[in-house]
Automatic annotation (TrEMBL):
Residues 23-357 form the Enoyl-CoA hydratase/isomerase domain. It comes from the Bacteria. Keywords: Hydrolase. CDD domains: crotonase-like. This is Enoyl-CoA hydratase/isomerase family protein. InterPro entries: ClpP/crotonase-like_dom_sf, ECH_dom, HIBYL-CoA-H. It comes from Pelomonas caseinilytica. It holds the Pfam family ECH_2.
Length: 372
């Protein structure tokens, strides 16, 4: 079986094994909530490309390593401390990270064999990027899904501009702007998950995939499906009505005004309080991304996101980047007091928002030009 596992470069942060027809990838960085590093992205890409061409491997499953005595995490996103360091150092590996991550996201969405994402626990940011393209997205009652990038002065990337835009009504705008974490029932209802398997069934499911007889892709899928149960009740219709009423407004300022006018509605007050802590500039970029995402293919969205993430770090330089400042406040100094510029939505310059959507590359030189 060794010929089925190519050389890996992540120093054990990705574990690979083959059981019968099934290739298993374990994200093995549990103390960092399995956050993705560039070597992990490279290993996942190498494995998937190799297994796509290997007749012996008929399906792939991806899961996160657990932490003894602690809540599980499938993948909490990208390595944001690396982003901060690389931005200040002018390290070209920062650009490589996003180019290669978005290529991996595209590969997963178009993978020619069943790809099963076992989304136990925290599934955020980059974790959504490596799970939303799965043929079978498996959730349990510990699953917490979110695209929380606006909290660090970024935008929902890894295809988020596309897959959030596919959610019903204006759920995509709400999830993108607030970064709100949702549970299994809501995720399945809104198209961000497929099936629910109770957490008590999870050890047996993983053991079956890892050690049980897996002679065919159909058997792999059946191993999951025989344990599927009804997900807990999703959000009430009243929540969807609120989301559409407020987050369907034509502009960011109008969304905030709508929430502010809701009076004693606790849901609206909480949403407004959340948005008041986000970068006004990057919320404006995020809203525009999701609304453009409804008219884009996945490949077009990933190319646009590659433009946006370049600008997030370079348009103003690292010293004035909202993203660098957001990461500083959350993960470096941990003062949770980002100094956003501008500080209010009314001060956001539409021309600066528009500048994010101008590609820094001509089409023939775009780093993702060949995505189909």
């Amino acid at each position: 079986m060794t010929d089925l596992i190519p050389p890996l470069v992540s120093d054990g942060q990705i574990l690979a094994e083959v059981n019968g027809c099934l290739g298993l990838i374990t994200l093995n960085r549990p103390q960092a909530l399995n956050a993705l590093s560039l070597p992990m992205i490279r290993d996942m890409t190498a494995l998937l490309r190799h297994w796509a061409q290997a007749p012996q491997v008929q399906a792939v499953a991806v899961l996160g390593a657990g932490r003894e005595g602690k809540p599980p995490a499938f993948c909490a996103g990208g390595d944001i401390r690396f982003f901060h360091q690389a931005a200040h150092a002018g390290d070209p590996a920062l650009g490589d990270f996003f180019t290669e991550e978005y290529r991996l996201n595209h590969l997963i969405h178009h993978f020619p064999k069943p790809y099963v994402a076992l989304m136990d626990g925290i599934v955020m940011g980059g974790g959504m990027g490596i799970s939303q393209g799965a043929k079978l997205r498996v959730l349990n009652e510990r699953s917490k899904l979110a695209m929380p990038e606006t909290g660090i002065g970024l935008f929902p990337d890894v295809g988020g501009g596309w897959f959030l835009a596919q959610c019903p009504g204006h759920v995509g705008e709400w999830l993108a702007l607030t970064g709100h974490a949702i549970a299994a029932g809501d995720a399945i209802e809104w198209g961000l998950g497929d099936v629910f398997v109770r957490a008590e069934q999870w050890p047996a499911l993983v053991d079956d995939l890892r050690h049980g007889d897996q002679p065919s892709a159909e058997h792999v899928v059946a191993t999951v499906m025989e344990r599927v149960d009804l997900a807990p009740v999703s959000a009430p219709k009243a929540t969807l009505d609120r989301i559409d009423r407020h987050f369907g407004q034509p502009s960011l300022a109008a969304i905030l005004d709508s929430l502010a006018a809701a009076g004693d509605d606790a849901w609206a007050r909480e949403a407004l309080a959340t948005l008041s802590r986000r970068s006004p500039l990057m919320m404006a970029v995020t809203l525009e991304l999701v609304r453009r995402g409804r008219r884009l293919s996945l490949a077009e969205d990933l190319r646009l996101e590659r433009d946006l993430v370049h600008h997030a770090f370079h348009l103003r330089g690292a010293a004035r980047s909202e993203t660098v400042e957001g990461i500083r406040a959350l993960a470096v100094d941990k003062d949770h007091a980002p100094r956003w510029s501008p500080a209010s939505v009314t001060e956001v310059d539409p021309a600066e928002v528009a500048a994010f959507f101008k590609s820094p590359w001509p089409p023939e030189q775009h780093p993702l030009k060949d995505l189909a």
